[in-house]
Amino acid sequence: MIHLGYFYGLLALLIAYTALRNLRERRWRAAGFWAVTALLIGSGDWVLARDAAGDPLPAQCAGVAVLLLAVLAPGMQRPALAEAPLEQRLASARRLGHRLFVPALLIPLITVLVVIAGKWLTESGLIGADDSVTLIGLSLASVIAVLVALRMGRAPLPTAAREGRRLLDTMGWAALLPLVLATLGGVFAASGVGDAVSALVTAVIPSDSRVACVLAYGLGMVLFTVIMGNAFAAFPVMTAGIGLPLLIHEHGANAAILGSLGMLTGYCGTLLTPMAANFNLVPVALLELDDPYAVIRAQLPTALGLMAVNLLLMYWLIFAF
Amino acid sequence: MIDLNYWPLLGIACVVLGFILRFNPVIVVVGAGLVSGLCAGMSVPNLLELLGKSFVSNRALLLFGLTLPTIGVLERAGLREHAHAWIGRLAGLTLGRLLAGYLLLRQLLSMVGLNQVGGHPQTVRPLLAPMSEAAAEKEHGKLPDAERQRLFALDAATDNIGLFFGEDVFVAIGAVLLIQGFYAQNGIVLEPLQIALWALPTAIAAFVIHALRIRLYSRALRRRLEAGR
């Protein structure tokens, strides 16, 4: 049976290798950062199992490890790691041609195939019932694709670890940011931040004006998404606070349209916020850009224009159907 | 609203302040979590447990790391150079057409649920970035570094916009199911399709607005480069 735990183990190994290489190159902070990360990823299943069994100590240690990551991250530099020489890459590109696209396209292709076959794979017991089929698909696809790529480039297995490490170190702490932000989302939810925001928003809007309610709901979705970095976190809070009581129940808005357009208005906020790290900050690291907010800057005009369109659509459509 | 504790909102203030002052995001975010948790009256051991538990429960967000060895090995074998050379040979493929075509393709694929097909590690770094650079260089010659960086940022933005404003048209996507589930809990029963269809007008608007911006960008790029010469 294929278990997601194996792939977390593999990922932890790759990260541990990255730590080791940094240790040998005397980049102490990076070595420590990746070592702690590898430990957290590798021990995840065990930590959660112990916590569920009523032993909070491993989870508390993991909490200390997260604090350690925060202390180690600021001093990490983006190292200049040597790539294969340009001559060699050009020669290889000429030799392989379009075949180079095959492994890159295998990743989405296999992922999608596994997802399509997901129900059958789960029922036949090949994939654990608790594991996400998409994640298994993505992991499996990555492993197959790298084997194909290695064979095609006539490279030995350690090349995969070395190249993976090169990209991981290129991204540095930014690779971990989506995960850290999701952690913050968990802490925010547990400390009642959402309830406090929605109470504040509902306290200040005049509820008998349709325009004011639409604006408050739409702009509230954007603002809350900017703060939380995720429209999914904003949707239940804003819809429970403004959408349901004021727009749907009081003014008779169409629920399906309101939900759909509300979520999409939130997405405009996702385009604007560094809190949505996997979309806005991770590419900055991956593309090695100097300005940390370059991607947000490129998105700003589209996001604002689309937000205006969404608000107009919302005002016209929710009361018309 | 009187008995609600508003102090955890200080965590949000920390985040905003930290990002404005450009502190390292990791320390800002962890710090904000500590502030919010302590303001909510959690004890230190409980807060540590919560931090650790939330972190490891979300570790799936790092699984994209498994795709990096493939991308790295392919880069070593000349993937970027090949993508670059291939686009350079295709006559008639301008920068505007390439980016608008990618946007459309990304939207359409997300609409049928294939939102994993693209992404920053999978397609933007290894494929779209070198292709767009080649398309721009065909017209303008070698780009100065600042222009190259702006172009790459636009590539990443195009991928995000294509994904965001395509995926909600697909009925089985998380967002649509979240909306449906939320309403169901509140006594409003809807079919996912009803919700997904209303994402179409925004999807079209997103394409029109961003494609227009890509055109404006190409023109401005030409103007800037000619002025610099």
UniProtKB/TrEMBL annotation, chain A:
Q: Which residues cross the membrane?
A: 6-23, 30-49, 55-75, 96-121, 133-150, 171-194, 214-244, 256-276, 296-318
Keyword Membrane annotated? yes
Keywords, ordered alphabetically = Membrane, Transmembrane, Transmembrane helix
Pfam families the UniProt entry points to: DUF979
Note the superkingdom of the native organism. Answer: Bacteria
Query: Would the keyword Ligase be found if you checked this record's keyword annotation?
Result: no
Q: What is the designated name of this protein?
A: DUF979 domain-containing protein
Species of origin: Solimonas marina
Lineage, top ranks: Bacteria, Pseudomonadati, Pseudomonadota, Gammaproteobacteria, Nevskiales
TrEMBL record, chain B:
Q: Tell whether Membrane is among the UniProt keywords.
A: yes
Output the superkingdom of the source species: Bacteria
Keyword terms of this UniProt record: Membrane, Transmembrane, Transmembrane helix
Transmembrane annotation, as ranges: 6-35, 56-74, 161-183, 195-214
UniProt entry tagged with the keyword Signal:
no
Recorded protein name is DUF969 domain-containing protein
